[in-house]
Amino acid sequence: MNPPALPDLPRDDALRARIERHLRAFDVQAAPAGGTLPTAAVALAIVDEGLGADLRGLPKPAAWSTQAALLLTRRSAQLRRHAGQWALPGGRLDAGETPEQAALREMAEEVNLVLDERAVLGRLDDFVTRSGFVITPVVVWAGAARELVPNPHEVASVHRIAAAEFLRADAPLLDRIDESEHAVLRMPVGDDWIAAPTAALLYQFREVCLEGRATRVAHFEQPLFAWK
């Protein structure tokens, strides 16, 4: 039996209004102030799907698609930590930066997508990673974003994954491990999958921004390879 068709989700004014409405109604849970963990921000950047995500199990459009997509990267193999893993554009906050400023700066540095703070739609919950960071997810309306240039020192590849892909009925995937009382969360993408912490942020984007449900994800576990 073929899986059910995913909804049409064009990146248009109606989608932007829907996401902004859901974010305004969402009570963001921030990590306690004054903690000792380093802080980082990532961009959940809504772009055009373009020519596809180029991943196993995902159809590749023959022409440019204006379906809404999220921008993800594969981290460079040269990086000291988390090399080759799925990621959202982002990184550590510089002194005096807000999470919004850091997310936009990092996106410009990693994939050459330059936007100002008018593109920011809101935040999702902070997520404390096993590797010792407090991550603030920033939702960004990033336009068509047709001219992306990955920074080879940080990014191995750039992917536009249709936002509708995260609405699949089999998402999220939850796995039990002996090392934690909480389930490891993964998000299926084509024939592949993305693990928490990135997957947790993608799942909350789906729940809050697309579905209007105030779903919390900070308790979900990460796979052991992400603990380092």
UniProtKB/TrEMBL annotation:
Signal peptide: none annotated. This is CoA pyrophosphatase. The keyword Hydrolase applies. It comes from Piscinibacter gummiphilus. It comes from the Bacteria. Gene3D superfamilies: Nucleoside Triphosphate Pyrophosphohydrolase (3.90.79.10). Residues 37-183 form the Nudix hydrolase domain. GO terms for molecular function: 8-oxo-7,8-dihydrodeoxyguanosine triphosphate pyrophosphatase activity. Its EC number is 3.6.1.55. It is an enzyme of class 3 (hydrolase). InterPro entries: CoAse, Nudix_hydrolase, NUDIX_hydrolase-like_dom_sf, NUDIX_hydrolase_CS, NUDIX_hydrolase_dom. The keyword Cell cycle does not apply. Keywords: Hydrolase, Magnesium, Manganese, Metal-binding. PANTHER family: MITOCHONDRIAL COENZYME A DIPHOSPHATASE NUDT8, NUDIX HYDROLASE. Belongs to the Nudix hydrolase family. CDD domains: NUDIX_CoAse_Nudt7 (cd03426). PROSITE patterns: NUDIX (PS51462), NUDIX_BOX (PS00893). Its cofactor is Mg(2+); Mn(2+).
